Amino acid sequence: MENTTRMWVFPKLDTRQFVVLALLMALHMVLSRLTVGTNVLQVSFAFVTMSLIAKWYGPLWAMLIAAVLDIVGVTIINPGAFFIGFTLTAVVSALIYSVAYFKHDFNSWVRVMVAVGLVSLVTNIGLNSIWLVLMYHTAHDWSSFLMFITPRVIKNVIMFPIQVGISYFLLNSPIVKHTTKQIFS
């Protein structure tokens, strides 16, 4: 019970932890801009930094940082039409990653597959498709939703094994374990 309760508080950060968080945020902004695709369908590797933030800082920090990064990204880094739905998507993704990875020294294949699968299904396919229909289509009907969801399903099916593999090896790498011991213990 104590471990679950500690998950839902903002842990105080020392200087090293704060600097690492700032570096991860900067790296996230860079990786989220290095995308392939269109405005409607993009492939990015920003999940790597959000996975590390979720593993090291927990759900509250990860959700706060996801919201801040989304808002900064859409208003300052890449000015465009701000839509709160995409911020909600980023927050939900951070929550899923945090619940799966926070306070776990070893992340099994199953844990990583469930986390990546939930993020893919709930946020990337589900929520983002809903937001795109609301933003770009005047007729909010089933055929409009299918038009947006079909390419997203294909993209996420292709990206699923790639994201699982990268996440598994990153989260269980000796460098991440060493960093966890040095900075977060």
From TrEMBL:
Would the keyword Membrane turn up in this protein's UniProt record?
yes
**Record's keyword terms, sorted:** Membrane, Transmembrane, Transmembrane helix
Q: Name one GO molecular function term.
A: transmembrane transporter activity
Q: Transmembrane residues, as ranges?
A: 20-48, 83-102, 109-133, 153-171
Q: Name one Pfam family in it.
A: ECF_trnsprt
- Keyword Transmembrane helix (UniProt): yes
Supply the InterPro entries for this chain. ECF_S_folate_fam, ECF_trnsprt_substrate-spec
**What is the protein named?**
Folate family ECF transporter S component
The record lists the lineage as: Bacteria, Bacillati, Bacillota, Bacilli, Lactobacillales
